[in-house]
Structures are given as structure tokens and as C-alpha cells.
Amino acid sequence: MENKTKFFQFDTQDVHGEQAMRELGRCMASELGAGDVLGLVGGLGAGKTRLVQGILAGLGCAQVGSSPTFSIVHEHLDGRLPVAHFDLYRLRQMEEVLQIGWDEYLESGMVLLVEWADRFGGALMPQHTVWVQIESVGEETRRVRVHTVCC
Ligand SMILES: Nc1ncnc2c1ncn2[C@@H]1O[C@H](COP(=O)(O)OP(=O)(O)O)[C@@H](O)[C@H]1O
Ligand SMILES: [Mg+2]
To answer: Which residue, of 54, 96, 123, 129, has the fewest CB within 10 Å?
Structure first.
């Protein structure tokens, strides 16, 4: 788990179209293990949720629908690994996520997929977070970078 950059077998990749982003998510899913934490970073519309949907599909989760923007967290318990999908976009204070059991999630062994993980300078995220930064480099093209430190 130490070097996920190698683990995912790419550092930087350009992804053309949302279908390809979902496909990348499926590939990444096959590399995930219990307790892995992905910190997804990128502006609105970057493709964080599309990538999550691909990961969930790759893990065999049936419900890969919406972003949890309005509820902070959605749990997906029907795949190869249990997943908690967070969206920190609307968080104003760290306390809001601590109150819904953030520390317990960190210790749960679930895979955590966290959109807007750089909220609060990334202070919520554990040391072993794998940072996935998505940047728009064209209408349908996204540059995906994997880091082991907050981007
Ligand atoms: N290569 C791509 N990867 C992901 N999304 C793309 C891509 N090209 C275009 N899109 C569009 O960008 C938007 C990404 O939305 P979403 O995944 O919800 O972003 P975020 O969660 O980062 O706000 C969608 O409307 C999708 O159709
Ligand atoms: Mg989103």
C-alpha cells in the first residue's frame, strides 16, 4: 500500500470522455484493498463522481447512482469491499464530518472514496491517503494524476 502511484500503475493519464473515466475507475477498483483511502481532488465537473461510479461498478456495487453532496456520505456494502463515498464540498466545518463518525470510518476498514478531500487543506485525511487529482484539459479530456501527498 505504501506506493499507490505504482500500485495503480500510472502517475498521470489523460482520459477522453466520461465512459473512459468510468473504465479507469473499474481498473483502479481491481487494485483496491480493505482500508484504502482515495482523496479525489478537482473542481466542479472535473469527473470525481464519474470516477467513483467506475470504482463502485468495478467492485460490483449495484447502486452507483448519485453523488452524496447533500448527505456527505453514501455507503455501498454490496460489493467486493465495503465502501463509504464522501463528498466534502458543502462542509463548512470539520466538526460536521466528525459528528457523522469520520474517525470510525477511518478505523472501519472500509474503502473511503472522498470527493473534495483537500477541504481544510487535507487535514481530515489520513497519512496513507492516495490523492487522485483530476484536471480538465479539454472539453472531454481530463488529466488524472495520482500522488501520495496532498495536491
Ligand atoms: N473525460 C471525462 N471524464 C469525466 N467526466 C467527463 C469527461 N468528459 C466530460 N465529462 C463530463 O464532466 C462531468 C463530470 O461530472 P462529475 O463526475 O459529477 O464531476 P465532479 O464530481 O468532479 O463534480 C460530467 O458532466 C461528464 O459528462
Ligand atoms: Mg461530484
So the answer is: 123
Question: What's the gap in Å between 44 CA and the centre of ligand 2?
Answer: 7
What strand order describes the sheet that includes 130-136? 12-16, 141-147, 130-136, 37-41, 111-115, 83-87, 73-76
Q: Which residues pair with residue 87 across a beta bridge?
A: 115
Positions in the chain short of pLDDT 50: 1-5
Ligand 1-lining residues (CB < 6 angstroms): 15-18, 20-21, 42, 44-50, 67, 115, 140-142
Tell me the per-residue pLDDT of 40-73, one tens digit each, with 9 for 90 and over.
999 999 999 999 999 999 999 997 666 665 678 9
Buried b (16+ CB within 10 A) or exposed e, 14-27: ebeebebbbbbbbe
